[in-house]
Amino acid sequence: MRQAGTALVAALCALALPACATRADDPPRHAAASSAAPQAEQRRPNIVFIMSDDHAYQAVSAYGGEIGRLAPTPNIDRIAREGAIFVNSYVTNSLCGPSRATMLTGQFSHLHGFTRNGERFDNAAWNWVREIGAAGYQTALFGKWHLNYSPEGAGIQTWKVLDDQGKYYNPDIITPEGRSVVEGYATDLVTDFSLDWLEEERDPDRPFAILIHHKAPHRNFMPAIRHLQKYLGTEFPVPTNYFDHYDGRPAAAAQEMTIYEDMYEGHDLHMTEAEGSNELRFDRWPDDFARMTPEQRAAWDARMQASNDAMNEAGLAGRELALWKYQRYMKQYLATVAAVDDSVGRVLDWLEANGLDDNTIVVYTSDQGFYLGEHGWFDKRFMYEESLRTPLVMRFPGRIAPGTRVEAPVQNVDYAPTFLDFAGLPVRDAIQGRSLREVVDGDAPADWREDIYYHYYEYPGFHSVRAHYGVRTDRYKLIRFYGDINQWEFYDLATDPGEMHNRIDDPAAQPIVARLKTRLEALRAQYRDSDGPAVRDPLTAVAKGRRDAQAAAGIGHHAH
Ligand code: SGN
Ligand code: CA
């Protein structure tokens, strides 16, 4: 695979791809990596694992959608152009804490035990960062942790984290020394912490793994001052199912996550009370704005006032107001993404300027996907496409050919084994995912998975999304919602990509539905999530998950 990859790089460079052209002055680098194989192979790669929070793949221009065209992410795209883009990248449970715990452990929620936000991750449990640290890597984490108060005891050597969800302006920062408010914009601060560590604290003679985990573009969508007006004049395309009827989908009908009704007008949409006033409308958590300095707030108001005044003057209602809210949401959300993309650019530039880009794996992903108005929603949780998918791009010069498109279905359960594998460490049995090294040449091995398993638990909870689990193949999706709703759903994504028609009762679909039900049971058994009755009582499932996680992680064998 290695040789094939190198040959492909050479072939692509011969075609003068832009990514290669910028390196024309330094042609032997990739070639040298293979001819000097014995030495190069011993040089363990650095790992830069960048993750944002709630970044929809629809808002990453490398994925080619219309939003990306209007609000491009050139630096994230650079990773894809110089490496691989995973076009079928999914999560196992579309929620922050469970996803992060999955990325750390390589296990589904029911095994690591963190099934819903508000759980507490056991920092003593096995995770890949501690493992590669023990094998000689320097490890550091900056930004969002959100698994419990801090990473204390998780075996990450250096860390500086946001408190809980993190605040956009002047966030509380927790370090081993304590907690303090640091003035600045969260995305920029997390980048500064990361670059400072790389520049000043890192031992240049040892490989490193740095986790740069942003708060943005998570709710309440507050952009940096420099980006506040970036999209104010841009009209974004309204999803065709923005005004969804939810017919045949009782769980979708019962959620509380519509842009038109469930977003807080002040807190999330930054709308003001009246023309000429800067007082925010309903603001569920006033601290996000109250903690701005007077200068920051004045700069904010100066840039937002005209738009807010125009809105108040227009006196919109009903459908018009719902459409206005969609546009305001997109403007603010995408402006927070702009700072994340700036951050990625700063990190890539730093690697290049320090000659580290060749021997460093750079990964960009999000903890899950997000709705950008599809079905009328923001937030995530559902197994419907936009939140099930998560962006994933990866660069590793000489090992991943520029412009690689990975079609194989991958999941966040695969990240831990990937990092171990690239670091030259064995993958342990308790890990349920597989190393992405097997698919980054664009050619999946014959025994690679063909479908993916998903399980969401957090109900009752924010946004009232019922617990559900399901299977997605390359074409079909079968979901079972359970708890106070017992509902199966079936979609043919080839004919109904927007998942508007639940065909579970369609006679023509029955042979496929039957096949998928069998397949779903097989997956539940394979991943050991086969405790059927637990689905009636999510709390029991959590307790079982904890027990299984401890057994799987072999707790008791590891001294921490
Ligand atoms: C907060 C948000 C919710 C969001 C959860 C989970 N409300 O509670 O809208 O679903 O986080 O997000 S907020 O107004 O406090 O931001 S997650 O990314 O942590 O899973
Ligand atoms: Ca999230």
From TrEMBL:
Residues 373-526 form the N-sulphoglucosamine sulphohydrolase C-terminal domain. The keyword Lipoprotein does not apply. The keyword Signal applies. InterPro entries: Alkaline_phosphatase_core_sf (IPR017850), SGSH_C (IPR032506), Sulfatase_CS (IPR024607). PROSITE patterns: SULFATASE_1. Keywords: Hydrolase, Signal. It holds the Pfam family SGSH_C. Residues 1-21 form the signal peptide. PANTHER family: N-ACETYLGLUCOSAMINE-6-SULFATASE FAMILY MEMBER (PTHR43108), N-SULPHOGLUCOSAMINE SULPHOHYDROLASE (PTHR43108:SF6). Belongs to the sulfatase family. This is Sulfatase. It comes from Pelagerythrobacter marensis.
